Amino acid sequence: xxxxxxxxxVRRSGPGAVVMRVVLFAVLGLFCLYYLFPLFVxxxxxxxxxxxxxxxxxxxxxxxxxxxxxxxxxGSACVGVRCDGLQPYFMNSVMMAVPAVIxxxxxxxxxxxxxxxxxxxxxxxxxxxxLFGAFIPFQVVLLPxxxxxxxxxxxxxxxxxxxxxxxxxLAFTTLFFRNFFIGVPDGIVQAAKVDGxxxxxxxxxxxxxxxxxxxxxxxxxxxxxxxxxxxxxxxFTVGDSNPVTVALNNVVNTSxxxxxxxxxxxxxxxxxxxxxxxxxxxxxxxxxxxxAGAVKG
Amino acid sequence: xxxxxxxxxxxxLPLMVVSPLFAVSLFFVYGFIAWTGYISLTGSRMMxxxxxxxxxxxxxxxxxxxxxxxxxxxFVFSGLFIGISMALGVFLAILLDQRIRVEGxxxxxxxxxxxxxxxxxxxxxKWILNPGLGIEKVMRDWGFENFTFDWLVxxxxxxxxxxxxxxxxSSGYAMALxxxxxxxxxxxxxxxxxxxxxxxxxxxxxxxxxxLRPVFLSVVIILAHLAIKSFDLVVALTGGGPGYATDxxxxxxxxxxxxxxxxxxxxxxxxxxxxxxxxxxxxxxYSELRGARK
Amino acid sequence: xxxxxxxxxxxxxxxxxxxxxxxxxxxxxxEFVVLVGPSGCGKSTLLNLIxxxxxxxxxDIFIGGDKVNKVPPRDRDIAMVFQSYALYxxxxxxxxxxxxxxxxxxxxxxxxxxxxxxxxxxxxDHLLDRKPGQLSGGxxxxxxxxxxxxxxxEVFLFDEPLSNLDAKLRIEMRTExxxxxxxxxxxxxxxxxxxxxxxxxxxxxxxxxxxxxRQFADPATIYENPVDMFVAxxxxxxxxxxxxxxxxxxxGKVFVLPRGARESIRFPVDGPxxxxxxxPDGHEVILGLRPETIFAxxxxxxxxxxxxxxxxVEVVEPTGPDTMIVFQIGGQDxxxxxxxxxxxxxxxxxxxxxxxxxxxxFDAETGKAL
Lengths: 297, 294, 370
Fold this sequence. Notes:
Chain B: It is found in: Cell membrane. The complex is a heterotrimer of chains A (297), B (294) and C (370). Chain A is an all-alpha fold.
């Protein structure tokens, strides 16, 4: 976010101002703790042994750091009846998220471009309809989607999930690109048309290279959404094809045997790590995606 | 002749390319809504049937006590979740707007929960709120022998644990939206206020916040939308329990569709959800799109 | 009584970038001082420093004799009009105007009286219940002025207040601002990049460039006796013709030989511009000729120190009251301002006459006036 040019306004200084400043930072710091402590609890618990968890406080630092829980969560924890850890499900999520992100972003860019730069009759209505599609509660499409996947032979498969995420991600990606392309002057496209470039020529040679920021924002947004999805995963997959969020929930809610909180926490970290990494690396774009999601139309 | 044909193709190409795309995606949304809507008007149970049965499923839905629990929970949850997240969001945004040098770092910390899956959030809060080993144990270890914090397993209070975790996850988002709004206020207006002699309190209450009305509206809509769709968090944190004490329309629909095989009732509840969201979103989108055209 | 403003050795940097590089300025009470210069010269920063909207880097600011470096804007007894007008969008015109009085706890009756007085003066009394979004650009401008005026401060600061108005309205408001100044007699500091605004409004002009004040003087002096090429080139439209050349002594007279021109063209620089006389032959100079000092030969009453020469016409640009003729000397485009009836055809030779008493001579190396 841009710096303010009002930061230089001369203000009264004195002990009162200093006290206010200290209070301000104390409050901000307190809230940092509030947001961070679940992360801390998650990490520290995952590094403790079960015995230490039962004896000690969950706010305490681990005494003996051990990665057994991580190894177990990754490789041998039981998800339902299968005891291979999160690893296969993590791979499912990768196999689901990567193609779905690429497809929905590419098609969304094409849609947004067609809607803004090749305005055809009814474009506004189509856009309004697509926009609304971004807001529907997905419960309303669960039943017919389950049936459709069944008829396509994709029920309970990762490709089925790719299809679902592409279709319902399209509303958002179209929205993002449409909002971006609206800011691209029509003159550029007109000039290219005069130069004899066609629909795809303009798209690939002129529009797409300009839209790198929009692409980054969209890819990050879509990846986060799809990776973190639970509803479609739990509704349309069974057992072996579960994405990692569903598997995590199964690990945590497995009622057989001893409750291994350290494994639960390690599993939660593993499931959350990819999106967390994306956020840390590309936080600015993530924030832009969030606010682009806020300011529709 | 040939060029005329190719020119005609060229002219229609955009439509030819995108119309199947639009057709498919609109079908997946509106076609499916129609299908669900129709099923809600049939006698479907285990398997979809296509014989019209009027409002039978809606009658059954509104005769289900669990549906009332879900609705009540939705109201309690949305009200608290939206209210607290917004209050916290505005408060933190204003604090962060005070020339904080490490603002970027603090913002990153406040916002990171938004990058997590609700399942992860639910898992960790389930652990923190665990009566045996979480906060309750810590407080007892600190000497508060009689401290009880069993909301997670208490049917009367479990819904508030969903609020706690939801606010933790989403208040940073509200903060980011408000902060962006604060920053969009023209610098010269703030300078004018400084010359007019308004202190920080007056600047925010009389000038900045009133001009953020559209942002408040957006945040309410976004949070309401999150609240109505909330499914993952409930599943991960309480599983809808104890019993169905924390059921929400989203979990209700899922349970009736995939666990109880009451397709008709599930479809009816999904339509109710859709209508609720329509009531909120459609006027908003309408005004946004109209505003954009002006 | 209006307050004067004094700046002493004022400096300001943003990051490592020094924007104000040691400025001294003494503004008398009741003066109308215009800070003018190209964008990025630091004029707006200087105004913000005076207003207290930026903290001082080093040096001092005095308003009405008091050092105000650490005084917040509200206590500097100033009012400011902004380029974007900066009206509060959610408040009515009435509340916009009275907000400053309200924060200062001015009694309601006094507020109403002040509002009424200045609303009538600025002809915004029929707009009081509207919001800024419902006003035209000119009306917003008036409201912004009203907000500044009701405060009845000792010093008014204007930051390019007219640059968002269309040309006609700009001239109207310019006159109005001048009237207000004459009527109220308060000190005004006014920032603009428009040199015509500077000339018409100011009692004194400070021409700024790159964080320095190049010249601080009344408009006539700035125009007639610029201290250097920058000031000479910045003030005046079309700009002064700058002809590089060399000094040449011949028969007791001093000439400037334009670089690259045929030998028959040599501008005599006697009289007021003859300060080049002590320079050795061949010294590199810049001869500055304002377009209006070059006219069609024989069209003005004869005077001392006229120089007549021929040059082919390149382009003719009628502006209405005058016609600009572009011609070349030594391959450089020059502009002459002639009467519209002195028609010339492109490509034809034209006989020009220069009033050399108005000519300026600058050192080519330093750019300073000689």
